[in-house]
Write a structure and sequence with these properties.
The chain is mostly helical. Helix content is about 60%, strand content about 10%. The strands form 2 sheets. The chain has a two-stranded parallel sheet. Strands 3-4 form a two-stranded parallel ribbon.
Length: about 190
Amino acid sequence: MGPPGAGKGTQAVGLAERIGGAHVSTGDIFRANVSEQTELGRTAQRYMDAGEYVPDEVTNAMVRDRLAQDDALKGFVLDGYPRTVDQVETLDGILGELDGEQEAGLDAVVALVVDPEELIARLLKRAETSGRADDTEEVIRHRQEVYTAETAPLLQVYGERGLLREIDGVGSVDEVAARIAAALDL
């Protein structure tokens, strides 16, 4: 977990490789379902075409399907899910359903912590280099506020469960990866 610009996608891919498990990204799942024109993909596309959020039921079903695939059975790193307390509860249920195929429950929840001003600077630089005109400082600050409001309850839930590992997300990719590995005893 981490706010936009914290490097969670980069770190999730590397961590999945390190544990020999699947990198399970909701963005990748959405794109795959839409491009393969699955029933869930067609449903999600209708919402996206209308400029609306894809409902939790659709997202949850896509995650359930993805976690049941062979490469995720030996381990996985979630990227972009869960985003709400309701999704935490749904994930608990999904993992319980898969209990016969893999160990139920999460081993840990990694949260990358980066100063908001550092994040804004990173995202403005990324916007310049990638030509993303929609990434203005105002939009970036708003996304940070939304992340903080929506994620704080999840961090509290996982903290109470003893699963939360907060990691300093400032430094090179390798430095942050080393901190994550140390926190997870890898």
